Records
---
Amino acid sequence: MVSCVARVEVPSAIWRKSRIGELGSSDASLLVAEFEVDYYGDAESPPRFAVVALPDPVLSDAAQLVATRALKASDAVQLATARAARIADPSCSSFASFDSELRDAAAADGFDLIPA
């Protein structure tokens, strides 16, 4: 599961790496295209993500998280989305991120981190 914010957040992170010279523009284009296939699916495969909209309870939880966990807005939305998914389905207990502050907050919330 992923918040609908990922639709903008993931390409933003990829293109930022390209702008600062850590990733070539052709590699960035390829990664963004691959993400979009994962997000939307294509003729050969369905989307790999269940995209979660942002209802008011998720936004309210995210607003609390920016205060209590000192997270950036987009990170708080991602964690609030994961928390809502876990409430709906307790087997949703894993959290994937490379952002260290978001990983720390997710771990403090009891999520299993990917990558470990």
Note: Residues 17 and 111 are 27 Å apart (CA to CA).
---
Amino acid sequence: MQKYKTVDEFLGSLDSDKKAQVEALRKIILDSSPGLEEHIKWNAPSYIYEGEDWITFNTLNKQGVVNIVLHMGALRKEDKKAAPILHDTTGLISWSSDIRGMIRFENIKDVQAKSEKLSTVLKQWLAIGQ
């Protein structure tokens, strides 16, 4: 598997459908907060907020979908039995612990359909770090 060093290198490796999804999602993510820094983590674009990774793409999965992982870097230890720290009124997030959740996108139409809710969730998620 290729190890990506830059976001452009990562984007160049995607087929046109996935690239369209990722680019649309990147815009939503970057618009959610001017303080985000984009880099590569876990071999995909990731976003640093207040010195920690809070949002990371997952595109290399068996399902072939684009996921966005919400997490808190090394800020605090995960508790898989605890309730999520963000009350998700949109229903987009599938939680795996109190501080780690995933949002799944099947295709570009799914990204477009979920874009407003995703924007809301990302702003709420990043507000936790303020």
Note: The radius of gyration is 14 Å.
